[in-house]
Amino acid sequence: MATVFFFILLFSMTTVAQQTIVNVPSADIMGKGKVYFEFDATFKFDKDPNNVVNKFSSFVPRVVVGVGKNIEVGLNVVGNIQPGADTTTLVPVVKAKFYDRKGWSIVGGDHVYIPVRNKTYNIGNYVYLQASKNFESNTRLTFGVFHASKNVFAAKAQRAGGQFGFEQTINSRFSVGADWITGKHAAGYFTPVLTIKPAPRTAVYLGYSIGNADANKGNHFFYAAVGFNLN
After folding, report:
1. 10-residue block means of pLDDT along the chain (231 residues)?
2. I want to staple 79 with a disulfide (CB 3.0 to 4.6 A). Which of 18, 52, 87, 137 is the partner?
3. Hey, what domains does the chain have and what are their CATH numbers?
């Protein structure tokens, strides 16, 4: 039963932010009136009774809208899992940039979790504050802290820790990156990612998530997403 609950929590968390590296929010903010849509998938092919995470697929649609004054809002729909009972959860989110000067930026955000199907709690919250530094080599580093209320990252427990990111632009079509959320809980993963831009308003993301806990017991899986700037 503990493994099943961990599995449900895992996919209630995956891809929690608006514009992100993978799971950790990026320093980017949508301009006023700009709209971004993304469809994320996480999946695993192999089936092993000894694994803590077995064969599955999970899908997350999300939309982000720039509202001006370095603020963007959005909505994620998480908890859509196959096989098993969906734990569909609406996650309205807000992200704001408080500082942007000399290559440094500071952003913070809040994510409110509202379960609507197969609920194990009524409402939850994930909040973060982080700084990013841009370098002349087209590299950006991100580091920050987070707090999650009970049941968001762990059953009946709060969680807090660090979140980190790396982004490297190669050219106009390709970039690489990675992010990491610390801790042994449903969000605790390291994920490297390749970003491909086949068209100016389209991006494809390909990554692999490795758990901070039980990676040697199958706690790892594929990540893929496609995103569209609608205007």
Report:
1. 45 54 94 95 88 88 95 93 86 96 97 93 96 97 97 93 97 96 95 95 95 93 94 91
2. 87
3. 2-229 (2.40.160.40)
